[in-house]
């Protein structure tokens, strides 16, 4: 009787003896540690990215094309923080939310990831134009165009992954080997198309643009040294503009590099098919690194952007509730 009760306790659905999946059995201390780490990542990711969203949405002085792209990235990062909640609920390896929610969860996950990577491409393009073609930047990169690009980025990500995963929506639970499992299957061609559109293509564009930005930035840094010797008002203005653009490029460069460091292991594992060979602990580390990137972005803003630190202070002290707070000088 004891063996039977123990076996039942190891099942996701004890009432389904013959068809239920088995739980992932870990020592209690390990489970608690994972629970605490994931809970902290989720809480801080959602909170910090909400601060970015509120800051850029509320303060008019922050309504710029570059900040709109940061807003899009913060929205996707905030959603990632909410998705971590599902990882917390799935610590024992059982899916309790039904087959429809399983597919919708994966679609949502794929859409958020693709939109995040797409936004990174837009950030790279924004910095490329700002550094390489500074005179054309104000006319080429407008707030309206940035809004259109962000909207297209999210719409394309949603449409693309709804099409790729449509068979899983039509045949709910077909690929599950037991009750309590959440498995989706991509068609062979669709999988490679998704990998190219979501990772290989965007990463190639991002690296290519930032290499170009780096080369131009180095040459501009040399030019700045000679400009500093000119004491004309126009010369001083040019130096100030160049320095602000260079600083923005450097900060967003850090965001892009951190993004690639956090995401590349996950996609490389997927690309090489090593996810089958890795043990559960290694795979958990790769996935946690993937999610951890969404927590790092607002911390980078806090480190490099004075306007973000100032806006956080105004939000926490509730000064944004004042009627004229949206016009506050943040920059």
Automatic annotation (TrEMBL):
Keywords: Cell membrane, G-protein coupled receptor, Membrane, Receptor, Transducer, Transmembrane, Transmembrane helix. PROSITE patterns: G_PROTEIN_RECEP_F1_1, G_PROTEIN_RECEP_F1_2. One of its GO terms (molecular function) is trace-amine receptor activity. It comes from the Eukaryota. It is found in: Cell membrane. One of its GO terms (cellular component) is plasma membrane. Residues 48-301 form the G-protein coupled receptors family 1 profile domain. The chain crosses the membrane at residues 32-56, 68-91, 103-125, 145-165, 172-190, 196-218, 252-272, 284-304. InterPro entries: GPCR_Rhodpsn, GPCR_Rhodpsn_7TM, TAAR. Pfam families: 7tm_1. It is a multi-pass membrane protein. Belongs to the G-protein coupled receptor 1 family. This is G-protein coupled receptors family 1 profile domain-containing protein.
């Amino acid at each position: 009787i004891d063996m039977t009760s123990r076996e039942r306790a190891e099942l996701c659905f004890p009432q389904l003896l013959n068809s239920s999946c088995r739980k992932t059995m870990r020592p209690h201390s390990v489970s608690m540690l994972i629970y605490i780490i994931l809970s902290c990542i989720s809480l801080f990711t959602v909170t910090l990215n909400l601060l970015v969203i509120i800051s850029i949405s509320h303060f008019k002085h922050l309504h710029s094309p570059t900040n709109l792209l940061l807003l899009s990235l913060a929205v996707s990062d905030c959603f990632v923080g909410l998705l971590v909640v599902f990882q917390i609920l799935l610590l024992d390896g059982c899916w309790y939310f039904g087959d429809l929610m399983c597919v919708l969860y994966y679609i949502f996950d794929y859409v958020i990831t693709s939109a995040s990577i797409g936004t990174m491409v837009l950030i790279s393009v924004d910095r490329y134009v700002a550094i390489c073609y500074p005179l054309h930047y104000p006319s080429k990169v407008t707030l309206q165009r940035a809004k259109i690009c962000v909207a297209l980025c999210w719409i394309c990500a949603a449409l693309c992954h709804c099409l790729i995963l449509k068979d899983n929506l039509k045949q709910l639970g077909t690929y599950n080997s037991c009750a309590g499992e959440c498995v989706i299957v991509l068609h062979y061609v669709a999988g490679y198309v998704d990998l190219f559109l979501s990772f290989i293509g965007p990463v190639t564009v991002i690296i290519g643009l930032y290499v170009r930005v780096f080369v131009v930035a180095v040459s501009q840094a040399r030019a700045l040294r000679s400009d500093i010797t000119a004491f004309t008002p126009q010369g001083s203005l040019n130096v100030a503009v160049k320095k602000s653009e260079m600083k923005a490029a450097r900060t967003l460069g850090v965001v892009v590099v951190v993004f690639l460091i956090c995401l590349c292991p996950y996609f490389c594992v997927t690309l090489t098919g090593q996810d089958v060979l890795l043990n559960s602990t290694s795979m958990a580390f790769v996935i946690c690194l993937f999610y951890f990137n969404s927590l790092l972005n607002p911390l980078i803003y806090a480190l490099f952007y004075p306007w973000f630190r100032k806006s956080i202070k105004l939000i926490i002290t509730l000064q944004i509730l004042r009627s004229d707070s949206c016009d506050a000088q943040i920059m």
